[in-house]
Design goal:
The protein is α+β, with helices and mostly antiparallel strands. Helices cover about 20% and strands about 30% of the residues. It is built from seven helices and 27 strands.
Length: about 525
């Protein structure tokens, strides 16, 4: 495994493998629900992204390809090959069936890719010197001659803006439709930005820089129509210098909220992300020989350090709903981290509390009264005349859309077609087992006939009064005959009420009881 990603509800977990396949697990049952495999590609998967409602999965691979899959049918929708290897690809979060994605190649600027036509649009990575904010033509070097390095980028919650972190330590806010830089936020120190991630609710932005500091920014722009708010800011701010104007606009978009770092070890961080509700931040140590996951609260306090095997962490993902973390090691193993809950039986009875040792208890005077005096005096604060709203549906706190019913939360169980030769083999072996156990088979019938013949042959010996029979049988009384007849009738009724398999039992029982009856008849005649 190389990378993992949850769907919006956390019911499905997708993992990209080094052989080019994508495995989807049902996270509730821990079973494999679907396996997506492209016959045209066997390169390692670099990133995985779910669509908004979980019907599509976008996979980027090391062979410079982007593949869009239909999750339910398991069929490939489209496949596009880029000029550079995409290290990360994200689908547009604003549509149910997105046809646009954001790709971050290895050694070129981030680009918007139209999956339906295959066209690409490179995004600017620096603030242009021209006053209109339009990006200069795409090139492989910065104006100062420095080559491109890994550039991080992500959509905002609605997908109308793209936030780009460049190698100069700047966060650029870009209108990707018009390819125009609208704002800029410089980072102190000017360190290279390696990761940039938005929280699920869109209120906070996380950056991971090369100076070994994780920064949290608060998003001041409105969650809806952030592009329109930015256009209004550009109109109100009057600055002749383009760079200063972009900084002024950026200062009204993002505000530094918190910084996270390890002051002792000064370690680099890898794969930082938010929790599902945005209250927690996690990041993995970038050291190759350790599997450590650091957890902070949003106030900046280090809460927990999770230590795993001596393997480097490759990717991290936090469950959208539950406090569960999934990490991928360098060897390809997926580890699931969850809280170890202790049994608290007093939770089932909130009025009781657990005691380590016996304590003396003084009974209240009205403790066992049907209506205690304290309740008689206490008046209810609830106004009984107020109308109760039973029509309004409360919004799901874990959903950021109004159309959650369209989401794909679980995959239907589809039986796999086996090899026909194996099916014939299994059918043949099962039929042999049935024949061997079936008492109505020719062998069993032959044995039954032989048994009846043997019993019939023994009856004349019993009838013979000579010295051949050393011990004679007593003749049963009338009451004994009635009891024996009842015992014979009861098993037959039970067997007749059962299904198809009980027919074999009926045959054998009839034969046994028939032979037994012949023997008794022979003894009765004596």
């Amino acid at each position: 495994m190389k990378c993992v990603a949850f769907n919006r509800r956390g019911t499905l977990l997708a993992a990209g493998c080094s052989d080019g396949s994508c495995v989807i697990w049902d996270f509730e049952t821990r079973g494999i629900a679907k396996e997506l495999r492209d016959k045209d590609s066997a390169a390692a998967i670099t990133s995985i992204c779910w669509s908004k409602y979980g019907h599509r999965i976008l996979v980027s691979a090391a062979d410079k390809s982007l593949t869009l899959w239909d999750v339910v049918s398991g069929e490939k929708v489209t496949r596009i090959v880029l000029q550079q290897t995409p290290l990360q690809a994200r689908l547009h979060p604003g549509s149910a069936m997105p046809s646009v994605c954001l790709a971050c190649p290895l050694s070129s600027a981030p680009m918007i890719v139209d999956l339906s036509t295959g066209s690409t649009t490179a995004l600017p990575v620096t603030v242009p010197d021209t006053g209109n904010g339009v990006a200069p033509p795409s090139r492989n070097k910065f104006p100062d001659g420095a080559p491109f390095t890994l550039t991080a980028a992500c959509f905002n919650m609605n997908g109308d803006l793209v936030y780009v972190g460049n190698s100069k330590g700047e966060i650029l806010i870009i209108d990707h439709k018009n390819v125009k830089v609208l704002g800029m936020i410089p980072i102190s120190g000017g360190a290279v930005i390696k990761n940039i991630v938005f929280s699920r609710n869109g209120q906070y932005l996380l950056t991971n820089s090369n100076d070994r500091i994780i920064r949290i920014y608060e998003n001041i722009l409105p969650l809806k129509d952030g592009l329109g708010a930015l256009d209004d800011l550009n109109k109100t701010i009057q600055e002749e210098d383009t760079v200063e104007k972009m900084k002024a606009v950026g200062s009204k978009c993002l505000v530094l909220f918190r910084e996270f770092q390890d002051l002792i070890t000064k370690m680099h961080w890898k794969a930082p992300c938010f929790s599902g509700d945005g209250e927690w931040v996690i990041a993995a140590s970038a050291s190759k020989g350790e599997h450590k996951i650091y957890i902070w609260d949003r106030a900046g306090h280090l809460v927990k350090i999770l230590e795993g095997p001596k393997e480097a962490v490759f990717d991290l993902a936090w469950h959208p709903v539950h406090p569960i973390i999934v990490s991928v090691s360098l060897t390809g193993l997926v580890y699931i981290w969850a809280k170890d809950y202790t049994e608290n039986w007093s939770a089932f009875a909130p009025d009781f509390k657990e005691l380590e040792e016996n304590e003396e208890y003084v009974e209240r005077e009205d403790e066992f009264d049907l209506v205690p005096e304290t309740e008689k005096v206490k008046e209810s604060d609830i106004n009984e005349d107020d109308e109760v709203d039973i029509v309004t549906v409360e919004k799901d706190p874990f959903s950021d859309s109004d159309m959650s019913q369209e989401e794909l939360c679980f995959l239907p169980a589809i039986p796999c077609s086996d090899d026909p030769q194996q099916q014939e083999k299994y059918v043949g072996s099962s039929s042999k087992l049935i024949d061997s156990n079936y008492t109505g088979s020719p062998v069993s019938e032959e044995n039954g006939q032989n048994g009846q013949a043997a019993n019939n042959a023994s009856s004349p010996l019993e009838e013979d009064t000579g010295g051949t029979q050393s011990k004679r049988k007593r003749k049963l009384s009338e009451k004994g005959l009635e009891l024996q007849a009842e015992k014979v009738r009861k098993p037959l009724k039970l067997l007749k009420s059962s299904g198809k398999l009980s027919k074999t039992k009926i045959i054998s029982v009839d034969q046994d009881y028939g032979s037994g009856a012949d023997a008794e008849d022979g003894s009765d005649d004596y």
